[in-house]
Structure formats: C-alpha cells, structure tokens
Amino acid sequence: MLLSKIKAHGVIGEIWSWIKDWLSNRLQRVINGKSSRWITVESCVPQGSVLGPILFLIYINDIDDNMISKVLKFADYTKLISAVATDQDIDNVRHLCNLASWSREWMMLFNVEQEAQLFAGIWPTVLPIADDLCKCCGAFI
Fold first, then answer.
1. Mean of the per-residue pLDDT values of the chain
2. Out of 41, 44, 78, 139, which could bridge 26 as a Cys pair, Cβ 3.0 to 4.6 Å?
3. What is the 3-state secondary structure (H, E, C) of 53-120?
4. pTM score of the predicted model
5. Interval 1-24 mean pLDDT
6. Which among 66, 46, 65, 67 has a CA at the least distance from the CA of 55?
7. What is the distance of C-alpha 140 from the center of its chain?
8. CA atoms within 13 A on the CB side of 2
9. Could you report the per-residue pLDDT of 80-139, keeping only the tens digit for each?
10. Long-range pairs for 7-13 at CB < 8 Å and ≥24 separation?
11. Residue pair 23/16 in contact by the 8 Å Cβ criterion
C-alpha cells in the first residue's frame, strides 16, 4: 500500500526498487537485558529511520482528498477545521465519513483514546458536542 503511494508520487526505477527492498521482509526484536524472538514487521515504515517521517507523510498525504474541512497535518497529529454558520454547514459534517472511509481503506485507524473531540461554538466560548455525534458511518472517529 505504501509502495503504491510512493510510486504515485513519482518515485520509480532503481530508487523505488531500493525502497521496496528496504521495506520488505523486515524482522525485529526487543533487547532489554535479554533478547525477544524475531518477529515479522507488519507495518511498512521502520521506526527510528531517517526516511520514516517522509514515508509517513507520503502515506497520509491524500487524507484530505474529498474533505470539505481544512485538514492540518503534523507528524501523526491530524486536525480538521471547519466554520459552521448555516444548516448546510452542519450537513457538511457528514464529510467526516470520508475520513473514516480513508482510515479503514488504508488501515490507518485513528487513536480516539488519545484525543477525539468535536467542538461547536464561537471561539473562545466553545462547547463540546456529545460523543454520539462523532459517530460516523458505523464507526467512531
């Protein structure tokens, strides 16, 4: 999946092949006094690598396709911003389903335990909206 996005960004030929080989058939283990057994790495981006942050940004670069809200992306933090002034704007909140669909399609689930908030109001007087209003397309986002 990541490799298809890398290719879509114009990385081809020997560089693409090198990245493909680097991301394929990886093993890891934990060493903390004694070593754990080697296991296959299921995710494609090696933690702590120099290319990791760039590859992650390539992977999430299309997260804002089909979104009405402005999407701010910084590392693994994503924030949606949208002004809501009319009933139509309220209906546009349904575009959050696009975000939920992207999340499922690319197997990049959001960590709602870390922080998931939906606010309505005029800054700085902001009122949190009930959690059940964040439910979208059969899944909480």
1. 75
2. 41
3. HHHHHHHHHHHHCCCCCEEEEECCEEEEECCCCCHHHHHHHHHHHHHHHHHHHCCCCCCCCCCCCCEE
4. 0.64
5. 91
6. 46
7. 15
8. 25
9. 777 777 777 766 666 777 777 888 888 877 766 665 555 555 555 554 544 444 455 444
10. 9/58, 9/61
11. no
